[in-house]
Every structure is written in C-alpha cells, then in structure tokens.
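R.M. (postdoc): so does anyone remember the format we settled on? I'll just put the structure tokens first.
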C-alpha cells in the first residue's frame, strides 16, 4: 500500500523530505503523481477540492496537516467511514494568541493613522486610550480562543468571550448561546473571531453581526474563510459601520488577485498565517500515526468525523 502527500508549499521540499526520512519503508507519492489510486491507503493533504478523495477506494486513513479539519468535512463526498487525524502543535494556541494580541494592539493604538500620517509628512498627534478602556470580544472558547482571551485580559483589555456553551474564564466576561450573542456584540468594539466552522457559524461575519457592534468597531478574524461574507465586510468598511478589519482566512484561498478586498480601505489581509504547525511537529506526528496505523495501535489526535472534531 502507499501514502499520497499533497503538502503546503511554504515549507518547500523540507516537509516531504522530512516525511520520507521518517518513514523510509513506505511508498510515498506526491500529488499529482499518485500512480494506481487503488494502492493509496493513507493520505496527508493540506487542501483539496471537493471530490478529491473519491478515486482512492482503499483509503483508510486521512491526515490533515494542521489542527483545523472542518474544511475537509465540508466536502459532501468526504468518505465518512475512514479514520482521520490532525496535527496538534502545542505551540498552536500561543502563536494564535500572539497574532490576536498583535492586531488588537495595532487597531487599539491606531497604528494605521500614524503610518498614513508619516506618508503625508504630517505630525498627527492623537490621544490614546488605555487597554482597560477598550472592550474586546473573542468569539470561540476552544484552546486557541481561551488562551487569546486570557492573554488579552492579562494585558488589561476589558475582555469578553462568546461560545456555544457556557464557559468560565477568570478575568473574562463569558456569554453563551443565541441569547448571549446580542449583548456580547453590543459591548465588543474589537471583535475577534476564533470559532470553528460549522453550519451554525458559517457566514457569521455578516452585516447583521457588524450592525450589532458599537459603531466604528474593528473585526479581527483568524477563524475560517466560510465565516466571512465578503460583500458585507467591504460594505461595512466603506460605510463606516466598521472602522477597520484584519482578515486571515477567506472563502477562496489564495485570495484572487482581482478580488476587490485587496483595495478595500482600512482592511488588512494576511495570508492565512495566524498560526501554523512547525515542520518538525507535522513530520513527527504524521510518521508516528502511520506507524501506529500499520501496527493497529491507537492513533494520535484522532477526529470524530461525524461530530466534526
């Protein structure tokens, strides 16, 4: 049997070379050189179009290259009977919290104002509020959302969080469920999205959500592209409903060169880079799962494909 790999190009050849070195006895093939599809029983795939896995009738194990698996499961042809694992880097949440804190500070301190003033050669003094005067809201209280909320609160921000079910986080005002969403939005002048993508969260970054925030709010999204209604975001920024936004994930990636979002005022685009697994973690975790799978042992970070996590 054989392994098919379709990997992130950000690591260059180092990732596939690392996997080959860690699994010297395996037949490892790189897409699109898959060979006989019936020989493939394991896949490790970064991103794939819907229906990609259909030719591989003997596929038994699917590995993501990161922690997020929702975009795989949204494929209507995803073979639900196979086993699936993900890569969990213990530094994931810390890297995400760094991203969230960096952009929260950027918008709170209105760095864009000073950058624009410098281009105009203008000494544009501006009074700044302290962190405790800025109300920040985090959507999602999984591992990443919780640490991000804790870090923001630790810096001194007036921090709240919203999730599907009730949580308690010291120093963070927690809201839950449909009944808590409106009050949460109403106090979130900087709204941070770290939700998983589910049928209920798809399109949540919409005109209705933006309108529920204080006027001139800011959105920072490091969740999934399916959360974003692009036209609503662009309209909110043009109309002043939102003052600014930083978006890391889009419905179509890479963001097409002709997308109007590139030129939308007060929008910062980052290329889905908020938090990534290290090359070493991907190689070691995947190789260990292959060895365990071949031996019939319990897998690391196995996903319940029916539950979606």
């Amino acid at each position: 049997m054989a392994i098919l790999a379709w990997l992130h190009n950000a690591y260059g050849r180092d990732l596939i070379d690392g996997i080959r070195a860690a699994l010297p006895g395996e037949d490892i093939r790189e897409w699109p050189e898959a060979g006989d599809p019936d020989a493939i029983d394991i896949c490790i795939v970064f991103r794939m179009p819907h229906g990609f896995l259909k030719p591989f009738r003997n596929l038994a194990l699917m590995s993501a290259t990161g922690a997020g698996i929702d975009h795989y499961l949204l494929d209507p042809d995803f073979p639900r009977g196979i086993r699936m694992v993900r890569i969990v880097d213990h530094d994931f949440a810390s890297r995400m919290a760094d991203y969230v804190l960096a952009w929260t500070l950027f918008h709170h301190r209105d760095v864009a104002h000073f950058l624009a003033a410098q281009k105009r050669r203008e000494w544009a003094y501006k009074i700044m509020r302290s962190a405790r005067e800025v109300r920040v809201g985090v959507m999602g209280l999984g591992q990443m959302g919780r640490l991000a909320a804790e870090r923001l609160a630790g810096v001194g921000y007036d921090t709240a969080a919203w999730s599907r079910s009730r949580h308690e986080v010291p120093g963070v005002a927690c809201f839950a469920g449909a009944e808590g969403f409106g009050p949460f939005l109403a106090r979130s002048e900087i709204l941070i999205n770290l939700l998983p993508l589910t049928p209920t969260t798809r399109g949540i970054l919409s005109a209705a959500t933006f309108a529920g925030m204080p006027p001139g709010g800011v959105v920072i999204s490091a969740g999934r592209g399916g959360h974003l209604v692009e036209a609503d975001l662009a309209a909110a920024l043009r109309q002043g409903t939102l003052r600014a936004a930083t978006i890391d994930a889009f419905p179509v990636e890479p963001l097409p060169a002709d997308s109007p979002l590139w030129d939308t005022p007060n929008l910062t685009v980052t290329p889905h880079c908020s938090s990534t697994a290290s090359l070493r973690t991907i190689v070691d975790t995947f190789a260990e799962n292959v060895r365990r799978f071949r031996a019939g042992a319990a897998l690391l970070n196995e996903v319940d494909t029916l539950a979606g996590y």
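R.M.: ...and that's the designed sequence above, right after the tokens. Also worth knowing: The chain has a mean pLDDT of 94. The CA atoms of residues 134 and 157 lie 6 Å apart.
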